[in-house]
Design goal:
Layout (H helix, E strand, L loop, with lengths): L2 H8 L6 H32 L2 H28 L2 H24 L5 H29 L6 H29 L2 H21 L14 H13 L2 H16 L7 H8 L4 H23 L7 H20 L4 H29 L5 H30 L1 H23 L6 H12 L1
Length: 421
């Protein structure tokens, strides 16, 4: 395949106008989001010097999503996802404005930051179950869906590369308030892109059932679809025990490497560099590639990266391992969401994605609290070493479940029939 054809194949989802608009708007907004996340972690750690408080901050911003995501999934399946996204993105912009006002007026406390984190967690409970299935609606040729999801993840990881670096510089020169203000402004791009999109007229479900009935249907669907439930279990386990490693990054920046806010930003950016490399690799894969084996391989790569990073005292060498960890970590959300989008029927897609949101927003904050508490006793390096070892164990255990678990041609035909209905 020629270079031009390879590039065209890697970015083939951009042929869809709505998706191209979405990608453009989200690219700007996600940079602002990562600037805000980086600034919040640095501010909290600078005020408290406590890894437990770092974990509590992440817990506050994500656990509400765990509690409400199932309800968010039902709302996504019942109502117009496009309009839901307009509301949630507007609400996120208001949250960022409030955070900016507090810090720019120098009248903030840790507890105010935690409360605004809770507000964002509630918003995300409705945003994620609507946003991810909406990508499916933006792509006309469903064979391009895995490419669209991979490119979407590459955009998030590009923001993870750029956002923390910009946040580190901005924190040093202007303070956290400007980071939050820039995030608020970045939402203008995503709102503008949404307003330029065109979707077919929304047709609500003919029959609206009780919420408890729809919740039960979603659970039963997962129970009878091991293709999806095993992936969800893996994501849950990794999100609880391994992915909260980023809770410890401020400690490495300030204590291990004797750095400042810019150092913290650089470490996060190198992790982002690895992640975007991984997602571009994923986007370039052929559509018949076994994504489940790729997921297991990346989980093992994540483990190796964390083990090596944990006890490396030379900053430049550590950054190479940060890239490796970032490459491995990208698979956890990206591939899981791709598999679930492909293998779930349209009527259940919002609810299934809400279970993904529960796995991430439920386990990550609990894991952050756990990792924060353990690191108080073991220290950040030893805690991250244990997380890397656990990633290798998880990859080995789930290999036995996933090595022969393939989405068959018959499964695809049944799903296409469901799509037609």
């Amino acid at each position: 395949m020629k270079l031009g054809e390879k590039v065209a194949s890697t970015f083939r989802a951009f042929r869809n106008r709505n998706y191209a608009l979405f990608f453009t708007g989200q690219s700007v907004s996600q940079i602002g989001t990562w600037m805000q996340r980086t600034a919040i972690s640095w501010v909290v750690y600078s005020m408290t010097h406590s890894t437990f408080m770092l974990g509590l901050t992440i817990f506050a911003s994500q656990f509400p999503s765990f509690l409400l995501s199932l309800y968010g999934g039902i709302i996504s399946d019942r109502y117009n996802r496009y309009k839901i996204l307009l509301v949630t993105q507007t609400a996120s912009m208001i949250q960022a404005v409030l955070l900016a006002i507090l810090t720019l007026t120098n009248s903030y406390t840790v507890w105010q930051i935690l409360i605004l984190g809770i507000v964002l967690g509630v918003i995300n409970a409705f945003d994620v179950p609507a946003r991810q299935p909406l990508i499916h609606e933006m792509v006309n040729d469903k064979s391009e869906l895995s490419n669209a999801v991979a490119l979407n993840s590459s955009m998030v990881n590009l923001a993870k590369l750029i956002g923390p670096a910009l946040a580190g510089i901005t924190l040093q020169k202007f303070g956290a308030g400007i980071c939050f203000l820039l995030n608020a402004v970045s939402f203008i791009a995503v709102l503008a892109s949404l307003l330029l999109m065109k979707f077919p007229e929304f047709k609500p479900p003919a029959v609206k059932k009780k919420i408890t009935t729809e919740l039960t249907e979603g659970f039963q669907y997962l129970k009878h679809n091991p293709h999806i439930s095993i992936i969800l279990l893996l994501l849950t386990t990794v999100s609880l025990l391994v992915m909260p490693y980023d809770t410890l990054i401020p400690v490495f920046a300030k204590v291990i490497f004797n750095g400042d806010a810019a150092t913290f930003g650089y470490i996060s950016s190198f992790i982002g560099l690895g992640a975007i490399t991984g997602t571009l690799f994923l986007a370039s894969l052929k559509s018949d590639k076994n994504l489940k084996l790729v997921l297991l391989a990346n989980t093992a790569i994540l483990g190796v990266g964390l083990i090596c990073f944990s006890h490396t005292v030379y900053f430049s060498v550590a950054m190479a391992f940060a890239v490796l960890a970032g490459f491995g970590s990208m698979a956890q959300n990206t591939i899981c969401i791709t598999i679930i989008q492909i293998e779930s029927v349209p009527a259940m897609r919002g609810r299934v994605i809400s279970y993904v949101a529960m796995a991430v927003f439920g386990m990550l904050p609990l894991g952050s609290l756990l990792i924060g508490a353990i690191s108080q006793q073991l220290g950040a390096p030893n805690t991250m070493l244990c997380q890397g070892i656990l990633a290798l164990i998880i990859a080995a255990v789930f290999y036995n479940f996933l090595k022969n678990d393939k989405f068959t041609k018959k499964d695809k035909e049944l799903l296409e029939e469901a799509e037609a209905l």
